[in-house]
Amino acid sequence: MVADSLDEADLAVIEEAALRNAVKHDGKAEVGAVVGRVLASRPELKAKAGLVSKESAAAARRVNALAPTEQAKLLAERYPDAEGSKQKQGRVGLPPLPNAVAGKTGFRLPPEPSGYMTVGHAMAFTINYLYKEQYDGELWLRFEDTNPRKVQQRYYESFRRGIAWLGIKCDHEKNVSDDMEAIYGSGKELIEQGNAYACSCDEAKVKRLRFDGTPCEHRDTPLEANLRVWEELLAKKHKEGSYVIRFKGDMQSPNYSLRDTNLFRIISQPHPLTGDRYTLWPTYDLANAVEDEMCGITHVLRSSEFRNELQQLLRDALRFRKLEVIQFSRFNFKGTPVSKRLLRPLVEKKVVSGWDDPRMPTVDGLRRRGIVPEAIREFTLQVGYTKTEHEYDWSLLLSLNRKLLDPVSKRLFFVPDPTPLEVDDAPKKEVDLSFHPQKDMGSRVIETAGEFFVSAGDLKGIPEGGVFRLMDLYNVQVTSAGPRPKGKYAGEELLANTRKFQWVTKEHQQIQVTVPGELFLEGDVYNDQSLKEVNGYAEAAVSALKVGDIVQFPRFGFCRYDSPGHFIMTG
């Protein structure tokens, strides 16, 4: 007799199958696939196929109601031994990788050193690194430096510096420019196969023929002639623009980039690392295909502006391994595009102070602003990745950053827009103030004698006779609310519903706090209000800070000590 119910173990198998299917297919579990997987893994349940189908539909509905990040988290927590779900504790937001075998995975960080490292790079690199750790794989830092016109030494250093700051540990580092001979070998192989040819058509003609879907006359050049030109190119016998090596693609392809695209071109600009040793340089797609094979890369995780079709054709032609390619939308932030086209003019025209301006989306800008690397990692885990274009708001990253800073940052008093305040009948005091309300971070002693500076904005709205409290000190009753406010000592008892103000004594330091905002308004319109400067007085203890220290000015915000007399608000 067939039982008319499923036990808890059966239901767990169904839930696991639904979660795995949803994680694999962008958050949507398909009932038929779930049923098929359950019956394949538990053949004894075929006698209960009706019940399995009913419970699978219910499980799919429950799972599909969750966000993809929650699905991945649930799979990792409830079924840590499931294939592909062996995520380490704390890994949320990243779904299991397809065909990933622990100890046999390879990942790469492939920056082109043509600009500074951005927050988009940081998030994409973090994803690769977390998967590398999760699957005990190998990680390559590989500089895609095959365009000497764009490459600069300072950009290599920007990525090295940013990767180290993020805590990403690479197993290997290399430059594609170091492997030119290997790439040449693959280029020659494509010519010998009849899959590539030398072309001397000018750029305008090639563009026209591609648009028309018409091959040029060089496509049928005999092999011997192509090889002769190839050797001449290697020997630097032709000028820039005279020849390119093109891949024989499909001239009728709806994807124009597959219509006999370029594989090699002549660039006469000396390379910062190899000098003038090479002038024939590979394009991005060929270099990547060759390098991924050489490095043993198994999983490519990258943003969707990169196209995979051509690289796959090249891998097939060269008989390279098949890779798992996972693409996701770019990490765009509201009001702060990462496009060099928009950012470079701001630097060149000195609209911003440089690439490390705290408004810039560069890693140097984030670090200078006081964003900590743990916030980047936590933010990446929370938002995960998706193929759908999405513009993130800075507020979530900044909120995470504040939560991380709160338990480790000293509290110091800062008075913006200061105005003097005399307090009559005030006792002379030496007050010992802790640097943190919960943690033991030491303290400082401040001597007071009735002469203070407080924020003019704080005193607004406090009428004569009103009472406020100087934080951690005592109460003050306003006796004069004019341009030079005065008060009198009103005791030390904590009074309910009494406003608390920061204060400093005559022993203070004048400082300026930079408050960064979003660089752009809607579209490409520069926001000329994206930077504000707040002047004020900070207590004398700021003199002990070092550049890079982050403190909290209560009721103002977390601020990073940038230079003597200057802080930057983290947000």
Structure characterization notes:
- With 571 residues, the chain is an alpha/beta fold.
- Among the domains are: 8-78; 410-569, Beta Barrel (Ribosomal Protein L25, Chain P), CATH 2.40.240.10.
- It is built from 16 helices and 26 strands.
- Strands 12-24-25-26-22-23-13 form a 7-stranded mixed beta sheet, with no helix packed on it.
- Helix 1 (8-24) packs across helix 2 (31-41).
- The longest helix has 17 residues, at 8-24.
- The protein is globular, with a radius of gyration of 31 Å.
**CATH arch. level architecture of the domain at 410-569:** Beta Barrel
Shape: globular
List low-pLDDT spans: 83-92
Estimate the strand proportion: 15-25%
- Share of helix among residues? 25-40%
Give the strand order, joined by hyphens, for the main sheet. Answer: 12-24-25-26-22-23-13
Count of strand segments: 26
* Overall mean confidence score, pLDDT: 91
Spell out the CATH superfamily of the domain at 410-569: Ribosomal Protein L25, Chain P
CATH class of the domain at 410-569: Mainly Beta
How many helices in DSSP terms?
A: 16
The computed structural class is alpha/beta
How does the major sheet shape up?
7 strands, mixed
**Cα separation of the termini:** 67 Å
